Amino acid sequence: MALANVSMIKFGLKIRTRSGLPVDNLVVQARDQAEAERKITQMYMHCEILECRQIQTATRDDATDLDGIISLISRQGDQEKK
Fold this sequence. Notes:
The chain is an alpha+beta fold. The chain has helices spanning about 35-45, 60-80, and strands at about 10-15, 20-30, 50-55.
């Protein structure tokens, strides 16, 4: 059984535990906000979710990075010949 290529998003949450203590900077990966909140409520039963925000992550273009590395190596070789 092959898994589908599912995009995961990071969410940052701020909650209040059932004892009233605030917990900041909880990070969870999920497909959407509803799933992120469900995961947190499974770990922290009877908590109150105060804030849930999507965390933007920088995406890397591996092909561009590889091209950059190759061009850097070739430039260094040209400089050594001079």
